[in-house]
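FW: tagging you since you asked about this chain on Friday. Here's the raw sequence from the shared folder, copied in full. Didn't touch anything.
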Amino acid sequence: MKLTALLYMLIIVLFLPTSCSKTGGILPPPPPDPCSLISVNLNGVVVNPSVSGASDGSITLSASGGSGFTFNINGGAFQSYHKFNNLPAGNYTVMARNSDGCSSVVAFLLSNPTPSCTGVNITVSATATNNVFCESSTATITVSASGGTAPYTYNLNGGAYQAANVFTNIATGSYMITAKDANGCIGNASTTVNNGTAGPLFTQVRTLVRNNCLYCHGGVFSSGGVSYSDDCNIVSGKLRIQARAVDGNPSPMPQSGLLPAADRQKIIDWINAGGRYSD
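HL: got it, structure written out here
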C-alpha cells in the first residue's frame, strides 16, 4: 500500500509543468530587435580651420533612421546638439545614436588650409659684427623678420633652417640670409662680415717692424725665417719680437742694435694690451 502511494506521487512530480506559463510550459519568444529593421545614416559637413594651427574648425551632423538622436566625438560624452565646434585639424570619429540605441559611426578629417604667400611681404634685416683679423672667427649675424606669420626660422647661404635668429662664429665674407614664416613664405637679406680695423698699438708696432726688420724678415731671405710683411705673423710672433727687439735675446733685432727706448716701449705696451691685431 505504501509502495503504491509513493509511485503515484512520483508520477505526479514527473509530469508537473516546468513553469506557470499560460502557454503550457513553453517560454515566449524574445522581443524583436528594434535595430534589425532600421538603418541609421550619418552625414556631416566639415569646416576646416581658418589658418594652420587654429582651433576653429567644426563638424555639423545630420542623421536619419529613427528619432531622439545624440552624438559623440572620439568616444566622448554624448550630446543632443548636432554640431561640434572649436576643432583643430585632425581625424575624428563621430557616432550618432537614436532613442532605440541604434547607431552609426563615421570618420571625418579636418585639414589645415594650404597657405598662400600671395601678397605676403616678409621684411628681413641682418646685422653683423666684425671678426678680429688673425684670430678664430667670432663674428655673429643677428636676423629679424616681420610681415609674415610667426614663428620664423632662418638659414644662412641656403643651409639648414634654425629657430634661433643668431648665427655665431661666422667667417669673414658675404652672406645671404633667408627667413621663412609659419606658412612657408620667405624673405631674404644680405650682409657682410668684415675684419675689424687694426688697433693703434698694433699699427705702431707694425710700422716699427717693417721699417727695421723687413730686410731680413721680408720673405726674401730664407735665412730670415718668418716674414713680417704678413700682419698675422707679427701677431703670432710677438714674443719673439719682444725677445729680439726689446730684450736683445739671443741677439738684437735689427742687427744694427736695439731700437730706441721709446720704440721698445711701444712693443711692450702693445703686448701688455693683449698683443692682438685689434689692440
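FW: The chain has a mean pLDDT of 87.
HL: agreed, and The CA atoms of residues 137 and 257 lie 38 Å apart.
FW: great, closing this out.
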